Each structure stands twice: as C-alpha cells, then as structure tokens.
Amino acid sequence: MKAELLQGFYLGNVLIEPLTREVTGPRNSTQVSPKAAEVLLQLAAAPGKMQSREFLLEKVWGEGRGSPEALSKVVRELRRALDDPAQSPRFIQTLPGRGYRLILEPRPSAAAGEAVVPGGSGAAQLGFFQSLQQRGVFEAAIAYLVLGWLIIQVADVVFEQLLFPQWVGTFVTVLVIAGFPIVLGLSWLLEFRDGRARLDKGPDARHPRQRFSRTYLSVVSALAISALLVFLYDQTIGLPEPDDSPSVAGPDAEGLPPVEANSIAVLKFFNIDGSDTAEVFASGFAEGMINRLTRLPSLLVASRGDAWSLGESSSSEEVRRRLRVAYFVEGSVQLIDDRLRVTVTLVDSGTGFQLTTRTFDEPIEDFNKVQRDLINVTVANLRIALPPESGALLEALDEEADLDAYILYRKGREVFERPRTTESLGEDIRLYEQSLAFDPEYAAAHAGLCTAYVVLYTLSNESADIESAEAACAAALRSSPRLPVVHDALGDLYLRTGRLLAAEEAYERALEINAQDVQAMVGLAEVYRRTERLVRAELLLVDAIGKQPGNWRTINRYGGYLFSMGRYDEAAGAYRQVVLLAPDNFQARTNLGSAYLLAGEFEKGRRALEEALEIQPIERTYSNLGVAYYYLGDFARSVAMHRQAVKLTPGQSVNWLNLADALHFAGDDAASRDAFTTAGELAESTLTVDPADAEALVTLAWTRHRLGNSDEALDMIARALEIDPEDPYSYYFGALIQNETGDTDAALDALGQALEKGYPASFLVAEPYLGALRADPRFHEMVAASFQ
Questions:
Q1: What are phi and psi of 362, to 5 degrees?
Q2: What is each CA distance from 34 to 12, 18, 77, 312, 356, in whole angstroms?
Q3: Which residues contact residue 505 at a Cβ distance below 8 angstroms, ignoring those fewer than 6 apart?
Q4: Cβ-proximal residues to 503 (8 Å cutoff; 6+ apart), any chain
Q5: Whole-number pLDDT of residue 191
Q6: Cβ atoms of residues 445 and 415 within 8 Å
Q7: CA 230 to CA 175: how far, in whole Å?
Q8: DSSP label at 90?
C-alpha cells in the first residue's frame, strides 16, 4: 500500500505527491518539508486509524530522536498546506494527548487517472491539476528542471576550464530558462504512441500512453526549440553582456549593521494549545526574557517589535539578516490541566544549530519562577561572564503579580502594540484598569496606563487625558520605584507636557537601574535635542542603535533627529535602512517619503507615501501625502488627503491647518476659514497643557493671521522664537505673515533665517503663498545660495 501511495494519491480533491513533496489543491500548490511528507504518508498508510505520537516520531525521526514540539510543528505545516483548520478538520484529526488520524481514505493517483469516462475528453472529465498529472506535465517539468540544472552546472565548470568566451555560458543559461515554458506546453499538447509523436486527444484504452517516451520527447524537443529561438534572438537583438562600467551604489545598497558577537533576540513563543490564556503566557514569557536580558550590561538584545515581526517558522538565516543578532531564543507554551509546560531553545543564528533545549513543567501559579529559570538557562549557555551583582539585580527587579492581573496586563500590552487609534487606546486602558482591579499595586500596569493616556492625548488633545496619565504614573511610582518601565513612563509624560528637566531626571533614573534601557536613551536624546545639547543627543541615539542593531524603531528615531536638524538626505538614508530591515514597515516608508519631500524631491516623496498608504493607511501618511500634492499644485487631491487625516485624528491642530491652506488654494474660502478656526482652538487647548509648545504657538499665530488678526500673530511668532530660537518654522510663518502685511524686507530677512536654520529651499520655491515675492531678485539669490 505504501509503495503505491509513493506514486501519488488524492485526499478528496487534493493531490499528494510524496516523491516531490507537492500538495496540490483547487487553489494553489505547496511543497512541504521532507518530514511533513513522511508523516502524511504514514497517516495515509492506515487511514481512519489513530497513529500515536510515539509511533510517528519513531517512524519519521528515528528511535530516540525528534520531539513532540517538532511533530506538532510538522502537523501545523500540513494543515496549512491542506487548508485544514484544527478546529474543524477535514483531513487530519488531532486526538489530544494520544496522536493523529487521517479522516479521508486516500485514492491512488493512478486509479484516479483511470476513472475517465471512455470516449470522453480527458480535459473535460478531469480537474485542471488532475489533467496536468494525467498528461505528464509534472513529470516533464521535474525532469527538465533536473536536466537543465545539470547542464548549467557542467557549463559553469567546464566552459571556464576550456577558456570559452563568457557569451557561451550566457547562451546556455538563457537556453535552459527559455525552454521551461516550452516543455510545459509540449508535455500538455503531445503524446507518444506506437513510435510516433502526435497531438494529445485524451485517454484511449486501446492505445495506452508511454509516459517515459512522452517526457523524453517533450524535454529534448524543448531544448532543441529553445536553442533555435535563443540563436535567432542573439542574431537579431543580442543576448545581455556584462557591464564593465563602474557601478554606482543606489540607495538600497546601503549596508546593514554588523552582527555583534554578544547579541541575542527572543522570538515570540509558540502557543501549542491555541487558547487565549496560553497566548498570554507565550507572549509574556518572551517579553519577560527580553526585559531581563536587556538589564545585562554585556548583552545586546533585539527589540520586542522587531523580533516578533518574524514568523514562527523563520529560518536562522532570516533571523540573522533581519535582526543582526548572533543568537536567538525560540520556545513553546502549553497548558496541561493546571500545569504550564514551557520549552525554550537557544539557537546560533550563524549555523542554525541548537545550543541547548530545556523544558520546564510547573504549576500555572509559578510562571514567575519559570521565567527566572528560562533566563538563567539562556545566560548560562551564552557563557557570558556576569559580575556577581548581576544575578542579584535581576532578582531584585522581579515584580510578582496576581495571575489574573498579569493576564490582563499582557493583553493590554498586546493591544498597545497595534496601530494606535483612539479606539485601540481605549481598549488598552480598560484592560490595564481591569488588571489593577485584581492587583491595585501592580506597578507595570500603572505605568502602562500612564503611557496609554499620554499617547491618547496626542490624538485627542484632551487635557483630561494628561490628568489621568499623571495619576497613573504617580501610582506606579508609589508601587515600585525600582522598575525602569515606571521611570520610562514618567519621562514620556514629562516630555509631552514640556517639563524637560523632570523628563531628563526620569530617563536618567531609568538608566541608573538598567543601563541598557533603549527606550530611556531615546527619550533622553529628545530632551537633549530640545535643550540644544545636539552633540550629546546624536551620540546617545547612535549608542542606542549600537545596543540593538536590528531595532528599526531606534534607527527610525535617529532618522527623526536628522530630519529635525534639516539633514534630510541623511534622514532619508536612515529611513532607507529601516525599510531594508522591515520592508513592510509603513511608518518607515512614510518617514522616507517625508524626508524626500523636505529634500525637494516631491514626486519621489509622493511615491514613497503612496506605497506606505497601500500597506497601512494612517493619519500621518495621509497628511504628508496632502503636503506632497500641495507642493505639486494638485490642491483638490491635497484637500482629499488632509480630510482623511483629520478624520482619523480630529484632535491634531496641524492637520486642520494644512487642510485650511489646501482649501484656500482649492477655492473654498468658507471651508478654509472654518478649518483655520478649528486649528486655532486645538492649538489653544495644547498651550493650556504646555505653554512652552513652540509648534502650537506658531500654528495659533498663522490661524490668527488668516482670520484677520496679524498683529497678535506676529507677537506669537516672537514668543515662539524666544522659546526655540533655532526653529525654522517660526521664521518661515513669520515671513509669510510679514509678506502678506506688506513688509517685504522683513519677510525676506525672516526667510533667510529660516533657510539658515534648515528650512528646505525647495518648499520656498513651490510655496503658493509667497506669490510675487518669488520674483524678487533677493529671493532668487537667497535660494540659489542655499542650494550651493
């Protein structure tokens, strides 16, 4: 039976080919791993019968080898290939704690091929993939690929030894590639019967097909035809030749950060059960390990977001390429009654070899103990020479929590990592509050609540959110003043409300507790930037990147620093590096588009922003795309983009300001005036929370001017410059106001100051508000000098 199944069999309408490991269904075809194919073959050999885990492990992996986790991983792979959900299986039934059973009776593919109605058309009676198999298309394709690969390999070795010119190798390679679609067509159309080749007209019981001859005919004919076609192409158009001109590295050729020898990542643990409770522990264990490992002064740890962006079955090569780490930890979590089984594996990313695997089986209430054991095993196997006080530090920073409170806190953390909207943050806050209902002294939940309210304020602009954040941070500080996350949250709160000295003290306290706290380093760098300690800010950001080389968020923040300094080309380089690390990162593409805009490359910026919008539509992408269309002169599209931005975050005054400007040039003055009014009200609300917010002052000044109060507007510009004399936007908007009030000389002076402080000259050239001022010779001289 097994030998017959090796030639291929059907499960329902799915074709299984064990020899090639192909699983072909009605919608797609997938190649599974050798172990998966062998497990499926073992199940098919005894359909309807339960095959124990032990039996499958012994038959597939060998006696004493393999593990239940490896078997579970293979079964998941088969379910994906068969489109067979575990909750309602159609093919493989899981018998918990015992093994697996194949539900359907397999039909050998040979028998399926004979079940064609005599005299009918084979293609009409069979499905598409069945027809491909019946006509030998799969066999011919495999035979051609094997033969073609051998031809290319032989040519690569022999031609060089014989000193053949390079075009000969190119000719052979193109010949083999061009012949592949030809062999597929020939194997479909031709058959070989009675020593002759002829068109295939369907199955005929009186004249059985000669499968080998058909495959041989198709392969040889395809090579001959492709040789002729490639020869004609070479004579008429010409095959590609090597370009001997020196290459110029494009933007995507920037190198990735090096892999540091003492670096590690913790991937998200796999949830074997699939239950919500197990999922909480799976993410909790992984994040707990990340948090503790970052406290070790000699270790570089990949960030949670980067590590968890990889799939559960990511190869060691992919982990190394994406995260730039020398080691990584992967594991699994399973709930068995009232016990928790956790398996952790340490892997060398360079070789893919497992350095160690350990399994912990403890009562569910002891999850804190299991976490401590995991970190100890991981560190011991990394052979890191820790000072004696390090172990004590880890123990001192552990925060024991009520089990229900911990589960709700973990769910809140998961929600917080999603794209942040007022709705998601509201859910996040509810989960933290529910966690605190079980454990009112849980400092991490108080800190999470504080941070959630701070972020919510950036979207809602409601001062009540800041008051709630203040209360939550105060409670966190009372509960556990030694947790770095508490001081991180305090720093974020103080930074948002303009209390820069207090923010600096909070971040420094977090770094005293954990010198590897990248979040605190990034926050402190922002404090340094705002207080004009620019060299220290940049050095701190570079240091943070060095501690987590694969952390795209830190590189992204560094790009933001370069952006704020007017170094737009360098910022674009940083954002391109983020895109290299995380190609689907819509935030990085949005930032890249913004950098292109400020560098004057409006069309390139528009394309990058539209790519980001296709991945994930967010407010900032819509807003920046609206700016791109504004400077490209497409005001109708600019209005449409800005309307989407204010719809997503109606509490952002800058978005309303941009919408008002676009509406003005689109000809809708009434709607423009309403948008200016809303922008001014939101800016005033921001200033009640942070009176030193220079950006809010500038926004309010421009709205005052557009609504008819230019004198008050110029006073606000002066106050903004007192707060931040290096802000180019204050000079720029002051110039716009002075230009429209007739003070041309003052406007030109202010524009010169704006250019000196980093305002992009390309924006001035394209700004429709400047109108006739752009014709002034002094304007041209000033802009030309900035481009030099």
A1: -135, 160
A2: 22, 9, 11, 19, 24
A3: none
A4: 490, 491, 492, 493, 494, 495, 523, 527
A5: 54
A6: no
A7: 6
A8: S
Per-residue pLDDT tens over the stretch 120-141:
333 334 455 556 665 667 777 7
Which residue in the block uniquely carries the two structure tokens 């977090």?
A: 510
Tell me: pLDDT of 553 over 90: no
Residue 749 one-letter amino acid: D
Q: How confident is the model over 710-720, as a mean pLDDT?
A: 92
3-state per-residue secondary structure call for 302-345: CCHHHHHCCCCCCCHHHHHHHHCEEEEEEEEEEEECCEEEEEEE
Q: How many other C-beta atoms are found inside a 10 Å radius of the C-beta of residue 662?
A: 27
DSSP string, 97-117: TTEEEE-SPPEEHHHHHH-SP
CA distance 151 to 154: 5
pLDDT-derived band of residue 391, with 50, 70 and 90 as boundaries? very low
Q: In what helix (H) or strand (E) does residue 360 lie, and over which residues does it extend?
A: strand 354-363
Dist. CA 145–CA 786, nearest whole Å: 59
- The partner residues of 271 in beta bridges, in order of sequence, read 333
Whole-number Å distance between alpha carbons of 155 and 158: 5
The C-alpha atoms of residue 445 and residue 461 are separated, in whole angstroms, by: 23
Query: Is the Cβ–Cβ distance between 782 and 755 less than 8 Å?
Result: yes
228 sits in which H/E element: helix 211-236
Between CA 412 and CA 425 the distance in angstroms is: 9
Q: Which pLDDT tens digit goes with each residue over 253-281?
A: 345 667 877 788 888 888 887 777 778 77
535, with CB counted inside 10 A (0-12, 13-18, 19+), is exposed
DSSP H helices, 383-514, are 388-396, 403-416, 422-438, 443-460, 463-479, 484-496, 500-513
Residue with structure tokens 């820069």? Answer: 500
Task: For residues 174 and 172, give the distance between their C-alpha atoms in angstroms, rounded to a whole number.
Answer: 6
